Model the fold of this input.
Amino acid sequence: MDAPTQPRQFLRSRGMKIPKHPDITTGRVRGALREGLYERKECDAVMKVVQQGDVVLELGAGIGYMSTLIATKNPVEHIHAFEANPGLIPYIRSVHEANDVTNVTVHNALLAPEDGAPADFFVRKNFLASSLNRESGPDSIVSVEKVEMRSLPKTLAELRPTVLVCDIEGAEADLLACADWSGLRAAVIELHPQWIGQAGVQSVFDTMHKAGLTYFPKASEAKVVTFRKGW
Done:
């Protein structure tokens, strides 16, 4: 007699296997994953600029979707994925494992201008909106976690990334401005103008231009902006 059929444990998204999770792969997230629309703008931009041999620095690893997409679709050298929310780290690793991804290092840490004491990270009901900013949704906070604070300049010197992928919920303006990004070949950044304002958006553009990168409209859409060296 045949063994009973096991319940399906994965969603399929852009050719990847995404483990089902009762608190993560639900509602809109589940639908977007199934339809290949999850973080679509950022995914499309990254696929246009990442190349063989790149070392990718991802700030805001989320559920591990972007690092898995890059690792499975491009022969990059390595990906360093930073995620502040400690509750997501086991799930990120499960996504990597499900897709046989072995060239990603997951860091549960925050990057800052310099090393410092652990910082408060505000976990929200909508895990994608969790951030350092308490005021961006104080009523939705479910817990406050202490997260390691590492120096961004030291991290860049150690890892030497060639591509930056950044989605850090409004911290992009202050954080990116504190480091030298001239070693990058390309950057994909999701802006959050509702929190950083016009001055913050200008700061991101100024920082990238100072690093020798030019705005690349063909790989930009709405709040996702792409920069690269050369044309």
Remarks:
- The first strand starts at residue 10 and ends at 13.
- Helices lie at 27-34, 40-49, 65-73, 89-98, 152-159, 172-176, 193-210.
- The CA atoms of residues 124 and 139 lie 9 Å apart.
- Residues 39-228 form a domain with the Rossmann fold fold (CATH 3.40.50.150).
